[in-house]
Design a protein that fits this description.
Blueprint (H helix, E strand, L loop, with lengths): L2 H11 L2 H13 L4 E2 H8 L3 H13 L3 E6 L2 E6 L1 H11 L12 H7 L6
Helix pairs in contact: 1-4, 1-5, 2-4
């Protein structure tokens, strides 16, 4: 990931509704959430939610998937992983053991 894309992703997440949308999609997992249900679940306006989804999509944090006549949005975990990797690229000045608390905090302990 380059600096421009990282800035785009951070800016996208730096707005309250977009952060709420992204967190909702992360919680939903691989099944995602239908476009119309996102606004309903967050108590947001449909048109505004669409604009937020577009920004998150351009930032590489969400993607749209067609499911018949429905469009579902899914958190793009590859894009999110790339953002985290960019932020931690030079972590701990050659002492990776110092990064372990951060890595442990972001490691998913779901399912398994």
């Amino acid at each position: 990931m380059d600096k421009t894309l990282a800035l785009s992703a951070l800016a996208a997440l730096g707005q309250e509704t977009r952060l709420d949308v992204f967190r909702l999609l992360v919680r939903a997992g691989a099944g995602g959430v239908p476009a119309g249900a996102i606004a309903t679940r967050l108590g947001a306006i449909q048109n505004t939610t669409s604009a937020h989804l577009k920004i998150l999509s351009h930032a590489g944090l969400v993607r749209a998937e067609r499911d018949g006549r429905t469009i579902r949005y899914v958190a793009d975990m590859t894009g999110f992983r790339d953002l985290l990797a960019y932020l931690m690229e030079d972590c701990c000045n050659g002492s990776p053991e110092l990064c372990q608390p951060v890595i442990k905090a972001v490691t998913c302990n779901c399912g398994g």
